[in-house]
Design goal:
GTPase activity, single chain, AAA+_ATPase, Rossmann fold, about 190 residues, alpha/beta
């Protein structure tokens, strides 16, 4: 399996912007894959390494998504930019990058709403978020979060998301699940108890 994955490949998440300013990372994927948690954990690692981080809560559709990301920000010491529930996610992403630049942050992590890759309108909206962010600065990473138990559908998701937002990396979550789809422990799962 290691040979198939290619151990010589670069596995670094690039959070340093080549043109100065904060490194900008956008996190995308379908509903329920763990995008917000992945964003929070990435922020934790970056802050622990001495970086200043701005979180962009561009998931304006899921109830409490911005609250969840803000809780992560408070836990790890990152500033969170959010907008009104149901608001324009591209606007939130734009504001996050703008504040990141004004604060001279090291990284801006943009958490986007989960969206089915089969819904053209939602995918078009994701493309808009990317274009709006790139008006201020280039994206350094676009991470696709996939549920590792998805199987072949994960490849389809990757193809469609790559066409819309030029995926630069993949994050696999829920690797400790089983094919049964259930667990005997209420604290199992890729992130454990909270």
């Amino acid at each position: 399996m290691v040979a198939l994955v290619g151990p010589e490949m670069d596995r670094v998440v690039h959070t340093e912007n080549a043109v100065g300013g904060p490194g900008i990372v956008m996190v995308v994927g379908v509903n329920g894959t763990g995008k917000t948690t992945t964003t929070g954990k990435l922020a934790r690692v970056l802050v622990a390494d001495g970086n200043t981080v701005v979180l962009g809560a561009a998931d304006t559709f899921r109830a409490a998504a911005a609250d969840q990301l803000q809780t992560w920000g408070e836990r790890v010491g990152a500033h969170t930019v959010r907008g009104p529930e149901g608001g324009d996610p591209a606007s939130v992403a734009f504001d996050a990058v703008k504040e990141g630049k004004e604060m001279a942050a090291d990284a801006v992590l943009i958490d986007t709403a989960g969206r089915l890759h089969t819904k053209t309108g939602l995918m078009d909206e994701l493309g808009k978020v990317k274009r709006v962010v790139e008006k201020q600065a280039p994206l350094d990473e676009v991470l696709l979060v996939l549920d590792a138990t998805t199987g072949q559908n994960g490849l389809v998701q990757a193809r469609v998301f790559a066409e819309v937002v030029d995926i630069t990396g993949i994050v696999l979550t829920k690797l400790d699940g089983t094919a049964k789809g259930a667990s005997s422990s209420p604290c199992s799962g890729s992130w454990g108890c909270r």
